[in-house]
Amino acid sequence: MAWIVQSMSEGPLCITDVGITMTKGQLRDLDMIGRDNAERSNDIKVLILKSFLRTVRKDAAPSTIAAPDPKIMEQLKAASEMASKANEALNAANANNIALQQQLVEQKQKAEEAVDLAKLVLEEVRAFAKTDPLGVRTIKEALENIKLEKVQIVQQISAAEAKVKENVSDRELKAHEQILKAKEKKLDKNFKDLGQTVSKSSESVDALLDTLDKEGIF
Questions:
Q1: Residues with Cβ < 8 Å from 41, sequence gap 6 or more?
Q2: Does one domain contain both 104 and 57?
């Protein structure tokens, strides 16, 4: 904001009521003494009227500046909110993209580890088969028999549990159930021990049996 005036007087120009003296052709910003003070000055009004003082530039005073249109302000606010939401959505999409990329990296790493483990198990199975082919066949048959026997035991346990629920006081059935569970636990241990005999790295005996079948090692 500025109210620039220029002295058109041939000599010094004194504006007494605001305490300003100007020389010929001098420019002065009256807003430096305050717009209100300049507007109230009778000397300034008279000097301008008599052309001793000329207005070069006069910006609108703050009080005369039109207030912003409420509709425009509302539109600007809505646009700002939309931009903010769009930015949030973009950030969320970027975060999801990063998470997906991390999942893909982890899945790829797990797949590579699974492939490496499968190769290691296969090498161990082949090595054992070369040193003790008869032992591999015996162990494979034992593993398959254990699997079948475990299925039977699980069925017997389920049947015993059903009967116990019908007659809670049947101690003989409860004892039989406990014996079956102990036998199942022992089968699991034997199953694991036999599998580790063929391959120390195999985490699943079922996977080991699949490897033996696919390779035709028995």
A1: 15, 17, 18
A2: no
| Per-residue 3-state assignment (H helix, E strand, C coil) for the chain | CCEEEEECCCCCEEEHHHCEEECCCCEEEHHHHCHHHHHHCHHHHHHHHCCCEEEEEECCCHHHCCCCCHHHHHHHHHHHHHHHHHHHHHHHHHHHHHHHHHHHHHHHHHHHHHHHHHHHHHHHHHHHHHHCHHHHHHHHHHHHHHHHHHHHHHHHHHHHHHHHHHCCCCHHHHHHHHHHHHHHHHHHHHHHHHHHHHCCCCCCHHHHHHHHHHHCCC
Q: Which domain holds residue 198?
A: 100-215
**Per-10-residue mean pLDDT, the chain, length 218:** 90 90 91 90 92 91 61 77 82 85 84 71 70 69 78 82 66 74 76 69 68 63
**Tens digit of pLDDT for each residue in 152-187?**
888 888 887 777 666 655 677 677 777 777 877 777
Residue 76 lies in a domain: no
**pLDDT single digits (tens) 96-110:** 888 888 888 888 887
Tell me, yes or no, whether 138 and 194 share the same domain: yes
